Each structure stands twice: as C-alpha cells, then as structure tokens.
Inverse folding.
C-alpha cells in the first residue's frame, strides 16, 4: 500500500528553540481536562518518568481545559476565557509539558488566533511568550532532556499510531518511536498506512459518525494486521477512539499512551 | 451503484449524503484504488524536485500578491487581450455569465458547441442555461462526456467519473453513443477509441468552442489551458469562435509567475512531470485558430471571499485536486456527498464561502482536521485553518437564528455550559465528580456501550471507557 511510508526522520526542535546546554530540572504539567478526568494513569505515568529522570513536576491545580474542542467546533468566543486562563495558570512556568499532542498544537498554533479574535494585544503578547515553552512529552524528553532510553521495560508486541496533530501540527517526527524502541524487551511493529487519520477529529466523530467509523475500520484493520498486543500513541483522544472499536469488537488489543509504556519498569508501573 | 452516489449529493447535509455514499461498494472500491494510486505517484514525482518547498512558497506568494491587487491585474489583462484582438466580458454572477455566453453563441446562429476543461461553467450551470435557449453543449473531456451521457454529476475535480468503472462506461457508451461498435468491450483502449470517433465529428462540425482557463497572464494577455487528452486544444483551435470562462482569481502577472504554476500543477494533479498538452494563446491570429476570442471574467462570490482575510487563501487554488486525493474523508465518501461543484477539502472551504452557510453549512465540519490536505497543497492553502474559521462563522450565524436553530440549539447550549464549567475550577471539579456518579446506569464491565441522544453516534461502533474513580488531580492532591 502506498501510505506505508516511513515516518519522517528527526526534525529540528519543533518549538523552534535549540536544546539548552543545561537540561530543565523543573516543569509544569498540563494534564489536559480529558486526561485528568478519563485517563489519570497517563498523568501518573508522566510524573513517574519525569521524576525518574530527575525532573521535578509542578501541577497547578487551577488548570482546566485548553479550549481546543470549543475552538475546533466553532465556538471561538467561548475559547477566549480558556486561553486567558491558560496563560494565567502557566505564564510563570519555565517549561510546560503535556501528554497530548493536539492540546499542545492548540496552544502553539491557534492561541495567537484566539488572542487576535479577542482583539487583546496584551493576551497576544502573553500567548507569544508562553506558546513556544509548551511541549509535548516526546519533545521534552528527546529535545530538552536529550534522552531516548528512559529506563523502561515492557516485554510486549506494540505498534505505534502517529496522531495527525503530533505529525502535522507539532512535527514530532519519529521522536515517540525512538523512545519506544529504546524500551527494554519491547517488540515494536510498524503500522501499515500509519499516517492515515483514525477518524477521531474531536466532534467530527459524533457529527460525522458514519464517515468517522469508516476511517476507524481501516485503522483497526491495519492494527490487527500487525498482530500487536498494544496500540500506542501520543494522544489519548485518538486512542480512546481506536480503543473504543478495539473493545467493541472484542479484539483483545489494548491501547496505551506512550507515557504509560515509558513508566513501566521491571518492578511495575512505578506510580 | 453510482446512481447511489449521485443521489447522495441530493440528500441534503454532508453527514446524510455521506452515509448513503459510504454504503456504495462500487464507489468505495473505485475511490480507494484511485486515490491510493495517485497519492503514491504524486509523492514520487514531488520527491524528484529538490526545491519543491521553495516552489510551493513561490506559488503561495504570487497568489497572495495577485489577490492583493486583483483589480489592477484584471484591468491589465483586459487591456492586453483587447490589444491582441480579443473581447473581454465581466460577469458578476452565474446568470450574467451564462447570459453572456448564450448571447455570443446565439449571435453566430449556432445551436451546438463543444466544451472542454471547465469546472467554472459547471459552477455556473452553463449547460442547463444553454439548453433552455436551444443550444446543446457537448462535453469533450472523456470523463466529462461520461458524466454528461449518464446525466450524472462530477465527483472529482480532475477525474469527474472517478466513481464509475469500465463496465459501467462500456454499457453507457453502447447505449448512448449511436456509432458505438455493436460488440464493444470494456477494454479501455476500445472505449477511448469509441469516444474519440464520436468527438472527432463534433470537433469538425462545431462553430463555437467553450473552454475554461487555468491561467491568464496579465501583461501579455495570454490564456492557458493544461490538459491530458488533447480535446482542449481541439476546442480552442478548431471552431471559428472561442469563448473562455475564467474565475477572476486565475490571473497571474507575468510569464515568470506562470512558470511556477506550470511546475506545481502537473505534479500535484496527475502526478506527471509535465502535462501532455499545454495550450497558450494570445487574442486571435490571422489564418490560425479561432477568428473570434471572448474571455468571460467571472466573479460569482469571489470578491466576497477576497474580503475574508483568513478565507481568501482559498482563492490560491489552482484546481489540482491533490487535497482530494489525500483526504481520508473524500476517499471514503466520494465527491457527490459534498453536494457542490468543488468537492473534497477545497470544496469544503470554497463552497460555503461562494454559496453561503445556508446552502453549505455542514461542509466545514466534513473534516477530521487531519491536515493531510495542507501538507500536499501546492499553493499552501491552510485548509484546516480555514475550515475552523468557517466553523466559527457558521456558529456565529446560527446563533443569530431564532429558536432551536439558534442560541437555544442543544449543541449551543451545551457548549456554552461547558465553557462556563471550564472557566471555573470549582465547577470543573464538581463536573468531574458528577460524571463519575451519574454514569453508573450506563457502565458495564468498565465501559459505556450506549450513549443517549446526539452522542449515540459515538457508541454506534465504539465503546467509551467509564470515568475512573480517581481523577489525576485527586491523585496529585492525595500524594502531596
């Protein structure tokens, strides 16, 4: 199949900043509302991995939602207070890390537009200052901390689905795969037609449920073709979509966020 | 089978039309095959060009410059064409365009015209308008001919009959072309030969030809059509009178700019290094080609698109259809589901801007925002950005409508309520707790298998995990 192309090789730091000589020792975690509520194990895993690497984690409790769902569904006005909230909560953080590529993409690519819509130059300035400091987990690990081997152990056959926003908004390239391949005991199988969208697309999955399901069916087929036990990704939203079908069809294949695999050691999940 | 696809386009909103199209086995098979083949070919020929990214940027920049001074470029084009012996007409909308074209044909007493390469006249519904005046327009692009003979609608910008297979075409030709051989097979060569024999007679007898325009060069008045079959060259050279219809955004300042697009277009559209036929003509020439040349400049909503600072990049489009070929939605629903002349990602942004949200309000949502279209677009139209922008427009317009279509529509109410929840930590944490408690009637074995109301679309094929007992923030607080 023609989409069976290799993932792009390492691209320069997507946030456009060279890796600092001294790696960061403290980061603020932006968990995202979705992970906070539905996938707390991913957040615990991020904390486990970062602390194992000697990075202190802050979790500002005032954080809620980045506003991506509202913005992408057409509710721009409702997004404005959420952008204000984000810059207030995280404005002082040196670095912000999040286990969601699409929420990071929202902040980095669209917060400027929201500030513009709000007609608020002050907000635009704050957004410009914080946006480049908001990183997706694999960016932080590979680019800022300079690690690929985080000391994980996971003796399973897995396949990696590169989510659209991690690929085409953040351009994380093969960073997540490099992290995965460094895990001890793991068997990483290449996913055919990996770069094809799974059909989630936020409210698209509900508004255009039939088309979304048609896309998902093909994604599930390629995952099953790999004979992997686990489908891994950098975004739980796409994983909830894919996992929803894997579960409904009783495939026995699980979905796991990249962080959860990186958190696993011979002594367990850590957190 | 493809009738199903044609019906899909008439079924109303995109989700409804898509549901019908998704069940069309023939359509799914043809499109899946065609889009995957062309994707791979395109990727191959694009990879050959070392400065492809620089070319894309040039393609974008030239269009941006043209659109900023569109009036000047168009007036220059008009003057150049007049100097070269051509006539320029300005059409505000589809009706005016069709009237102008009909009047020119009528003034020559013709009741038959040959047509090539014109999606723009598809947009204006020219064929139907001419028919009402007793003028029959013969489509001469092979695929467009197939569409016309089967009374169907195009489903792809470049390959209008992409939803049909050769057996369907064989049956159609055998039925609709009087001089088709009695034992016509479905061999593509034989099918093409049958169409060729049919078209050759028309080319030789028609006195008026109609074409679209890919590019028009302002400083020399040169008009260009690029194509694969040669029928375009026949239409633009054999009849005595040539009428070309172009959207006003197709003007380029100079040949230097044209050069950029002649590199971008073939690789992006048909995955060719160069297209087989590139026709260029400047006005009329004594003893060669048509004796009369008319160029119709069509607005039909384009100036209002121009006024939209985010949306105007859609006017960069050179109709290559690369965005259709990579789109995971288009690949599965086909073009008819979009219910518009321009299908796929570019149609999902162009049509609502040209025809308004009332007619095409569901199109900006017909995308998972995967971004594959933006990645391949040769003129760097950020389609996901425009889609989201148009969703903002759609919601803002709907909110002004009365009753359940407007501010009290369930989605609007829910979205505003959620925004209030997210804006307040206490409300947010309360909502998390409420979710955990109220989900219990729906949870079975740790998963929700059926959701009510508008969310039932999700659970029609997907489970949803139950909200776990402890949120991340609760864990964090406990840990401190």
């Amino acid at each position: 199949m023609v989409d069976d192309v290799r993932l792009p090789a390492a691209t320069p730091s997507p946030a456009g900043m060279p890796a600092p000589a001294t790696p960061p020792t403290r980061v603020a975690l932006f968990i995202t509302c979705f992970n906070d509520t539905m996938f707390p194990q991913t957040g615990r895993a991020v904390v486990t991995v970062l602390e194992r690497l000697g990075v202190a984690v802050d979790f500002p409790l005032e954080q809620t939602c980045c506003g991506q769902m509202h913005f992408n569904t057409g509710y721009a006005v409702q997004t404005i207070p959420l952008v204000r909230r984000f810059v207030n909560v995280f404005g002082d953080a040196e670095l912000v890390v999040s286990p969601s590529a699409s929420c990071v993409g929202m902040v980095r690519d669209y917060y400027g537009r929201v500030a513009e819509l709000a007609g608020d130059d002050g907000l635009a300035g704050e957004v410009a200052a914080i946006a480049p400091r908001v990183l997706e987990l694999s960016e932080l690990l590979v680019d800022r901390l300079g690690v690929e081997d985080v000391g994980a152990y996971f003796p399973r056959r897995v396949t990696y689905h590169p989510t659209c926003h991690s690929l085409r908004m953040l351009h994380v390239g093969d960073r997540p795969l490099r992290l995965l391949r460094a895990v001890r005991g793991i068997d990483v199988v290449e996913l055919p037609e990996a770069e094809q969208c799974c059909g989630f697309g936020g409210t698209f999955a509900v508004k255009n449920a039939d088309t979304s399901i048609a896309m998902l069916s093909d994604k599930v087929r390629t995952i099953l073709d790999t004979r992997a036990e686990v489908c891994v990704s950098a975004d739980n939203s796409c994983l909830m979509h894919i996992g929803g079908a894997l579960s409904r069809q009783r495939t026995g294949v699980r979905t796991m966020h990249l962080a959860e695999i990186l958190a696993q050691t011979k002594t367990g999940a850590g957190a | 089978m493809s009738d199903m696809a044609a019906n899909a386009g008439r079924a109303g909103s995109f989700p409804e039309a898509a549901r019908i199209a998704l069940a069309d086995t023939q359509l799914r098979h043809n499109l899946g095959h065609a889009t995957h083949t062309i994707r791979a070919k395109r990727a191959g020929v694009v990879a050959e060009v070392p400065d492809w990214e620089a070319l894309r940027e040039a393609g974008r920049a030239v269009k941006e410059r043209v659109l900023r001074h569109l009036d000047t470029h168009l007036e220059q084009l008009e003057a150049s064409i007049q100097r070269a012996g051509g006539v320029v007409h300005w059409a505000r909308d589809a009706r005016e365009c069709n009237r102008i074209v009909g009047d020119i044909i009528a003034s020559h007493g013709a009741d038959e015209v040959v047509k090539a390469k014109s999606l723009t006249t598809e947009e204006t519904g020219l064929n139907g308008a001419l028919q009402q005046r007793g003028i029959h327009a013969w489509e001469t692009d092979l695929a467009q001919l197939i569409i016309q003979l089967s009374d169907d609608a195009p489903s792809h910008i470049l390959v209008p009959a992409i939803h049909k297979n050769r057996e369907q075409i064989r049956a159609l030709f055998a039925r609709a072309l009087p001089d088709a051989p009695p034992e016509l097979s479905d061999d593509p060569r034989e099918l093409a030969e049958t169409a060729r024999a049919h078209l050759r007679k028309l080319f030789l007898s028609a006195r008026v030809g109609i074409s679209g325009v890919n590019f028009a060069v302002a400083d020399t008045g040169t008009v260009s059509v690029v194509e694969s079959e040669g029928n375009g060259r026949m239409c633009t050279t054999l009849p005595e009178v040539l009428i070309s219809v172009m959207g006003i955004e197709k003007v380029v300042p100079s040949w230097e700019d044209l050069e950029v697009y002649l590199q971008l277009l073939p690789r992006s559209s048909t995955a060719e290094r160069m297209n087989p036929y590139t026709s260029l003509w400047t006005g009329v020439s004594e003893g060669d080609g048509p004796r009369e040349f008319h160029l119709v400049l069509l607005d039909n909503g384009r100036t209002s698109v121009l006024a939209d600072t985010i949306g105007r990049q859609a006017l960069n489009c050179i109709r290559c259809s690369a965005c259709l070929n990579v789109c995971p939605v288009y690949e599965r629903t086909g073009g008819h589901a979009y219910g518009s002349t321009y299908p796929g990602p570019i149609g999902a942004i162009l049509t609502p801007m040209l025809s308004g949200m009332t007619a095409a309000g569901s199109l900006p949502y017909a995308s998972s925002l995967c971004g594959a279209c933006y990645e391949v677009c040769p003129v760097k139209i950020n389609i996901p950005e425009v889609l989201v922008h148009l969703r903002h427009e759609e919601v803002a317009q709907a909110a002004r409508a009365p009753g359940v279509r407007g501010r009290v529509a369930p989605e609007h109410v829910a979205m505003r309520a959620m925004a209030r929840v997210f804006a307040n930590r206490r409300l947010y944490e309360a909502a998390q707790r409420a979710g955990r408690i109220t989900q219990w009637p729906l949870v079975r074995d740790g998963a929700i298998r059926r959701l009510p109301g508008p969310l039932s679309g999700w659970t029609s094929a997907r489970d949803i995990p139950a909200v776990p007992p402890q949120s991340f923030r609760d864990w964090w607080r406990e840990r401190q």
